[in-house]
TrEMBL record:
GO terms for biological process: amino acid biosynthetic process; branched-chain amino acid biosynthetic process. PROSITE patterns: AA_TRANSFER_CLASS_4. This is Probable branched-chain-amino-acid aminotransferase. Pathway: Amino-acid biosynthesis; L-isoleucine biosynthesis; L-isoleucine from 2-oxobutanoate: step 4/4; Amino-acid biosynthesis; L-valine biosynthesis; L-valine from pyruvate: step 4/4; Amino-acid biosynthesis; L-leucine biosynthesis; L-leucine from 3-methyl-2-oxobutanoate: step 4/4. GO terms for cellular component: cytosol. Pfam families: Aminotran_4. It catalyses: L-valine + 2-oxoglutarate = 3-methyl-2-oxobutanoate + L-glutamate; L-isoleucine + 2-oxoglutarate = (S)-3-methyl-2-oxopentanoate + L-glutamate; L-leucine + 2-oxoglutarate = 4-methyl-2-oxopentanoate + L-glutamate. Its EC number is 2.6.1.42. It is an enzyme of class 2 (transferase). Its cofactor is pyridoxal 5'-phosphate. Acts on leucine, isoleucine and valine. One of its GO terms (molecular function) is branched-chain-amino-acid transaminase activity.
Amino acid sequence: MSRIVYVNGEYLPEEEATVSVFDRGFLFADGVYEVTSVLGGKLIDFDGHFQRLKRSLAELDMPAPAAMDDLLEIHRELVARNEIEDGLVYLQVTRGAPADRDFAYPGEDVAPTLVLFTQSKPGLADSPAARAGIKVISIDDIRWGRRDIKTVQLLYPSMGKMMAKKAGADDAWMVEDGFVTEGTSNNAYIVKGKKIITRNLGNEILHGITRAAVLRFAREAQMEVEERPFTIEEAKGADEAFFTSASAFVMPVVSIDGVMLGDGTPGQLTKRLREIYLDESRKTAS
Ligand code: PDD
């Protein structure tokens, strides 16, 4: 069965789904995106992703696609048509395809491009990586200054993943002025004693939807949370570490730059938080 993809109002087999070579997403990375996970055929935290998409569009003065009100329905339709049990829905909006390449934004006559597709990932919530924990390296954060907007400018995060692979690790945490900003595609946390520490929100990091939910659940479970920057050195001396994202949920980190954390296995608090997150978010999945 060919995957069904949504492009500008149409559900098409992936071979027939195309966008223009003049699309500003392609030429200027002038686009924003969201990734929503699917567990048991249901969307996890759709509303959070929808609200952040609206914010990303507003921050860039990008027109919302006409189908904005129908986004939940389109997500559900794609999950059903592609028979996704566990996996994710990727959504991208760009500033559309004007007649020529021009740095200036096009006028209102150019409609935004809206594309959605699914990726099937059977057993997404039960990944071997979550059982063993993953290794990260630290790299300089050389991205632009508006990381709170979820744009498709992902070249440096891709380079970071490759640097990690080359170093025999799984992912990279980015460091600016000595402080960890975030992972290549996730938010970073350390645990000291029973306290969860993660960078406070600002333009330096993406405001993770999983982050917001995890911190809420942690506080509800009477866990102590401190939102402040931490250095990579502090992270190497932490009792536990983990990261969060829509596709990895709560993912244990067991080594940083080759320095093993604790006994080199996922920490107790991290494992508990992963369980709580998966249980609670399945309850409200739509
Ligand atoms: N990435 N920080 C960055 C730089 C990210 O790219 C992501 C998500 C996050 C976590 O945000 P959320 O919890 O809302 O997924 C933090 C997605 C999953 C991706 O690019 O595939």
